[in-house]
Structures are given as C-alpha cells and as structure tokens.
Specification:
alpha/beta; 12 helices; 39% helix
C-alpha cells in the first residue's frame, strides 16, 4: 500500500499521519467508515421507530458495534467521543467537526453546517489517549453559503495535517441552485472540489442517471478526486444482500471504501456486528460477495479483529 503524505504534514508528524492512515484502512488503502454522525444530523429519526432495533435507541450501541466488529473508524461528534471514548479506547475514531439537523429544508433556507469544535480540541482528546485518526467536515456544494464552508474546510485540512490527522470531506451538492443532487457530473465536481481542499478522503452519495443507479457512473468522480480517495455513502437501510452486492460493484469500479450508517446501526448488536464484518471483508479484505454473505450469515469467520 502506497501512502501519499501531503506536503502540509510536518516532517515530525509524517510517521503519525502514516500510522493513522494505516489504522483507518487496516493497511488496505480502503476505508470502512461506521457512520454515527446522523445521531445529530437526523436527530432520533434514524435511531428509534418501526423497523429499527431497540438496541439503536441507546447511543452506546454505536460504540458497542465498533468495539466488537472490524471497522476502519467510527465517525461521531466530539461530544459522544468525550462521553463514551474512555470506555471504548480501543476503537479508532473520526470526529465530525460540523453538523446540523435536518429540520430546516433547502426549500426554506440553503444549508450551512458550521464548525462546532476545533481541530485543537480533537487533538487534545487524542493526546488524552483516545485513538482518534481523523476529522470530518461536510461541505454543501451549491449552497449560497458554500464559500463559508469551503473556507472552514480549507483551514481544517491544514490544521488537521499539522497534527498528523487525516480529513474526510462529506461533499454533497445541495441547495436551491442544485437541480439534481445525484447528477453524476455534479457529484464528480464535488469530489474534485474536495481534492482542491486537500482532503484525504471524500464521501459522496452514489450518483444516478434518469433515476437509476449504476456503479459505472462513479468513474468520473473517481478520476476527478485524483489522490483524494472516494468513498460512497450507504444510504437508507436495504436488504443486506442487495447492499453488499452494490458495495462490491462500487469497489470494482475503483472506489476506496464505504461509509455505512443505517444499514449497520439500525440492526441488533449481534446482526450489526456480522454486517460490519461482512462489509469489512469486502472493503478491507478484498473478498468477494459470496464470502461476505457467509460472514453476514455467521457461516464464515470474519477478518481478524485488530
């Protein structure tokens, strides 16, 4: 695995950056991100209700999954890491630096997700002994407030690299100027924008054309991202076999991993752990779908848990 260390990482932090990259990808170059940031983004809609396991009502469910399964990082807000991190010090974390709720829709006001905590505060948590590898930040490309988010993101990338931390940019076209959030050309532009910010990874929604998904539509975005590695959001809960086959197809066209939330945490702990291990078998282990399905069904041993 080749690691491109950005030039804004100080010499004394290069080894730390490499270690964080290796930790996040388990030496594969691919990221398996367990997304728990929706706890603030979507309030309780994703964590309580019909079709959602009772386990998911408790925020600690996210940490239990991450501690028992093989994942690259658990992505949550600063406060949750501070509240639960000492009890799950073995879990690798990504701290989401900005968030907003989903209550104010784009039809009412263009989205703006302001930075909530500083890179320095996150670095202090790392120095306190937690395994924090990265920070994350959302930019809404096309929002009338994009200039503020782009400015914050640029500063965050520079500050995080100074600490040897990686940065994942959530790059979502959104706002009244955006006619189609899933347009492949627009998503490629958002991926390229994340590269211009200096992000190590960019998280995008899988594109659609004429309302239909096709992994081949990701190729433009992968090329546009360059050395910024592209991962796809998992979306709403779906059938596990359908999800794993779609993920396998995304990886086959050249994506560098996945960011999965609802398809994991809405399940019971036991099932969520099996699903996380199945996703890691594809993403980190490079195994095929049939192997991953056997892991999910409990018929195959998962990858060794670090």
């Amino acid at each position: 695995m080749r690691i491109h260390v950005p030039a804004d990482v100080p010499e004394e932090k290069v080894s730390e950056y490499r270690a964080n990259f290796t930790e996040m990808t388990k030496g594969s170059g691919r990221l398996m991100l367990l997304a728990g940031d929706q706890k603030l983004e979507h309030l309780n809609d994703d964590f309580y209700g019909p079709g959602i396991s009772e386990d998911d009502a408790d925020p600690e469910h996210l940490f239990r999954i991450a501690s028992k399964a093989t994942v690259g990082v658990l992505a949550v807000q600063y406060g949750l890491v501070a509240l639960y991190g000492r009890d799950y010090a073995q879990v690798p974390y990504l701290v989401k630096l900005n968030s907003k709720t989903h209550l104010v829709k784009s039809e009412q006001k263009d989205p703006y997700s302001k930075q909530l905590v500083s890179v320095r505060q996150v670095a202090d948590l790392r120095r306190a002994g937690l395994r924090i590898c990265a920070v994350g930040y959302t930019v809404y490309i096309g929002s009338e407030h994009e200039h503020e988010m782009l400015s914050e993101a640029t500063r965050i990338v520079a500050e995080a690299h100074q600490e040897g931390l990686l940065v994942v940019i959530w790059a979502y076209p959104r706002g009244r100027a955006v006619k189609d959030e899933k347009d492949p050309h627009l998503i490629a532009g958002a991926a390229g924008a994340a590269a211009c910010l200096g992000a190590d990874f960019v998280k995008v929604n899988p594109p659609k054309k004429d309302g239909k998904s096709d992994p081949g539509l990701l190729r433009e975005a992968i090329l546009a991202a360059g050395r910024t590695r592209l991962v796809c959001a998992g979306g709403s809960s779906t059938d596990p076999e359908v999800f794993l086959r779609e993920l396998s197809e995304q990886l086959a066209v050249g994506t560098s991993g996945n960011a999965t939330g609802r398809n994991l945490h809405q399940k019971s702990l036991q099932e969520a752990v099996r699903m996380a291990n199945a996703i890691s078998a594809l993403t980190i282990g490079g195994r095929d779908v049939e192997y991953a399905l056997r892991v999910y069904r409990g018929q195959e041993a998962p990858l060794a848990h670090p």
